[in-house]
Amino acid sequence: MTGLEIVLLCLAGGVGAALRFVLDGTVRHHSSGSFPLGTMIINVSGSFILGLITGLVAGSVLTHGWQLVLGTGLMGGYTTFSTASLETVRLLEDRRWLAAAANGLGMLVIAVAAAAGGYALGLWL
């Protein structure tokens, strides 16, 4: 990695974290339930975008340097596995079994499908 790529990766990580903060806050403001919908939207959309970026690199549309900046930096700052895990634990503590399963297992299945769809789209482009 070049010095410029490292700087861009760091900046992209900060932008991704800010995007996550704003989107999660917006979703919380517009939803009425206690289900962590914002985190699910963030992780599923981030999985799709990371899949897309990886597919674009595999198809030689983007370079590996851009994959590091956009995938590791931007999407690394944007997505949040740790928050999703903690929110699942909190749902379990509240004995909200179905919501916990939907959040933990459901997000995993949907996020993997989104990543596969993004990757396929990236290869197609």
Automatic annotation (TrEMBL):
The reply on keyword NAD is: no
- One Pfam entry name: CRCB
Positions bound to Na(+): 76, 79
Q: Which InterPro entries match?
A: FluC
The signal peptide, as residue positions, is none
Membrane topology per record: Multi-pass membrane protein
The answer to whether the entry has keyword RNA-binding is no
What protein does this entry describe?
Answer: Fluoride-specific ion channel FluC
List the taxonomic lineage: Bacteria, Bacillati, Actinomycetota, Actinomycetes, Propionibacteriales
